[in-house]
């Protein structure tokens, strides 16, 4: 019997709404975690959190943390358009399993470099919490992605240089990824996960060449994307076993300060 | 056992398991990719070596010049490499409606090129509709020679594809999950596949949660075909979805290559 050892740093629960997913909830996620040796998952918020039910979703996530045997940790969502998010996040900061902040400039329609985000960076610095952001490349088919290109976060990365900051989706598949790599090279506090359909050929080999070992985190984007599409890539990549371990486990333990 | 030993053990097991699949890749691309600015072009001299590194035993080559420049330029590039291709590799040409009759090389008139194993259409890029009255002549030609028709899902209107599949039940249509993932479309996709036994789904970007297992259960393993989308995509992504799916080994081998080989056995040159 091999004990679970992987950390999935990019998961969600709840209906995706935009499409049919055969699995959507925390018990299903937990079953998959057991199947694929995933010790912990980080829930980067549900659609309900994004559209406004922050209090209810934080309470639900706290319950899921307990009912999962303290294996599904969670972040709180910050929207610069909602006045009471900071208050709710401050309350959540004392809840067990609460591990940081998620922001999604494209979803909120507010550019990542807008002053409206300063409050959450200041909050994260005050509570020593990591921030995970949706990031992508400029997209011909999804124009709002321009609000979340990696370099737009840079002014805050520089200002709050102690905050562990994760570029979710590695900046996408285009120029955003170049910027993500540059920022991860340049700033000690910048990391990247490859949750979502970041299936770039030889991604891991490139990361091994260009980045320190502590920068890349495994993430599935469950239940939008199946962890099976990423795990075999890591296992069979032409990189050292040590780096595979860093990607699958150690880097997320460090960013989220989890006990292994 | 330590974590690194576990990782090495799982990696070894996966490496062995993938060899059992006898992969045949329906989706390999030569030329300079559109939409993927960071992708390194796959040169014909490297194809065999790259495929071997992923335990892929054969496949179908397409050329980016087809959608990016013109069907004729893409097909010419494939003709050029065709003479040097080993037996395990063949080609998919880009097609156009047969009227107006345009410059060659195009599929649809006379006997197909000896290495041709399929025709792909890009209706949106090349500005026509997938209506039977527009592409019917080419579809009849494909049926005559047993050639499958390939379509990226981003290049079609779903209603048109449904009508085409109904109009030409003897035409094998392979719907490809590129160049963006098939995810937001599955409420349409299932009905299309359910109603049309002549439509198959290529899986390189069919990556939603438990999608392979669910689709096999709902539609049958004979309806799915493995593709990598090399060199844009990492083949281990679609291999991983297949290898770890909760389906029988028999069904995995069907999807990995047997379904596509069966379709290609129907090609009459």
The total of helices of chain B stands at: 10
In helices, the fraction of residues of chain B equals: 40-55%
Task: Determine and state the CATH class of chain A.
Answer: Alpha Beta
In spatial order, strands of the major sheet of chain B run: 1-2-3-4-5-6-7-8
Low-confidence parts of chain A lasting 5 or more residues at pLDDT below 50?
Answer: none
Oligomer: heterodimer
Q: What spatial form of chain B do the alpha-carbon principal axes imply?
A: globular
Average pLDDT metric of chain A:
96
Total beta-strand segments of chain B: 8
Strand order, largest beta sheet of chain A: 1-2-3-4-5-6-7-8
**Most strands sheet of chain B:** 8 strands, parallel
Notable characteristics:
heterodimer; A: 260 residues; TIM Barrel; 8-stranded parallel beta sheet; 39% helix; globular; B: 269 residues; alpha/beta; 10 helices
Molecular structure report:
The complex is a heterodimer of chains A (260) and B (269). With 260 residues, chain A is α/β, with parallel strands linked by helices. Chain A has one domain (6-256): Metal-dependent hydrolases (TIM Barrel, Alpha-Beta Barrel). Helices cover 39% and strands 15% of the residues of chain A. Chain A contains eleven helices and eight strands. Chain A has helices at 26-35, 47-51, 54-67, 85-92, 105-108, 118-127, 154-159, 175-186, 203-210, 228-236, 241-256; strands spanning 6-11, 38-43, 72-77, 98-103, 131-134, 165-168, 190-193, 216-217. In chain A, strands 1-2-3-4-5-6-7-8 form an eight-stranded parallel sheet, with helices on both faces. The radius of gyration of chain A is 17 Å and the shape is globular. Chain B has 269 residues and is of the alpha/beta class. Chain B has one domain: Metal-dependent hydrolases (TIM Barrel), CATH 3.20.20. In chain B, 41% of the residues lie in helices and 16% in strands. Chain B contains ten helices and eight strands. Chain B has helices spanning 3-20, 47-53, 65-68, 71-82, 132-145, 158-167, 186-195, 211-219, 235-243, 249-265; strands spanning 23-30, 56-63, 89-94, 116-121, 149-152, 173-176, 199-202, 224-225. An eight-stranded parallel sheet of chain B has the order 1-2-3-4-5-6-7-8. The longest helix of chain B is centred in the N-terminal third of the chain and has 18 residues, at 3-20. The radius of gyration of chain B is 18 Å and the shape is globular. In chain B, 49% of the residues are buried. The model of chain B has no long low-confidence stretch (mean pLDDT 97). Chains A and B meet through α8, α10 and α11 of A and α1, α7, α8 and α9 of B.
